[in-house]
User: Fold this.
Amino acid sequence: MPMLTRQLRLSFLAAAAIAGLLCHGASAQTVDNLLTRPLSGAPDTLKANRPQPSGITPSTGVGVFDRMGAKLPDLPPEKKYTGVVDEAYGAYQMGYYLTAMGRALPRAQLGDPAAQTLVAEMLADGLGVKRDAKNAAFWYGKAAEGGDPAAMFKYALILMEGRIVKRDKTLADEYMRKSAEGGNSSAEFNWGQILIADNPGEKGLKLALPFYEKSAEKGVADAQYAVAQIYSSLQDLPAEKKQLAREWMARAAHAGFDTAQVDLGVWFVNGTNGPRDFEKGFQWMKIAANDGNVVAQNKLAHLYINALGTKADPIEAAKWYVLSRRAGLPDPALEDFYLGIEEDQQKAAIEAANKFRRLR
Assistant:
């Protein structure tokens, strides 16, 4: 049966910093960098994550570790299946959930791990039946015992959360590892996260890298971002890998990962891991800024002021600074710029900021 790809959110582990190398996109940079990340701290007079006029809380971007267990971007379309047709799963894919349950449940009761996973999935989502998290966990557990990679991933998250079943990190780690080794792309990414958490510093990054690489190849944007940062940061990797850092960052950016878009923009502007390209740097920064990333909004203001990749535009620069300042991101240099422009320009910038709405 093809692998089920819907993700469960992992709430047992709060966001944590990954020692220096993966923290908010830090990377080896040249001494003549034109863009750097702003300080993350905000004075008491500014409240972080203040909603925009639209009522939407802005994004400051997330480090790859913060996304552990979160819903990942959809994977690329699967290759055409030429094996034996699974009638239960076929009915599931077409939305005939009662039919799928009727065909899968007898097989699940006879110990078929793939059918057990399918039953668990429908119970977890309430597809054709009443939502039943407890029974879904039971069937995920049975399928995990039977070695189904998708079920091992889902049950590992359930064990880590400890809400439906008793929390058991040891067993959760075992299932996550086995699922990753079985080729589940989400488990590969999350097992890499666990390895980094349990092995601080370069040791953890080196242990996690092979799993990130496998997950990245399967289209998981979070893993692509992690691979890009590790390739950029670790000094003793083969040259052919380090040369691919920007390519992996671009893949994550194209998948819509806002932090990757910001970092790719910075890399283009600064000439990190490749030649400088101010226009591409500006384009990626604007995409992330329009999607509500506060760091991108801050950096976009600097690009407009310095005419990097675009024409100088004091009103646009001030607009993006106003938006990032409202979100709680201070920048003394931009504040000086803002106070130095004409009053009518300040007014126009505020009006433009008030009209801003995220594109997504």
User: Anything to note?
Assistant: The radius of gyration is 23 Å. Confidence is low (pLDDT under 50) at residues 1-31, 39-58. The longest helix spans residues 202-217.
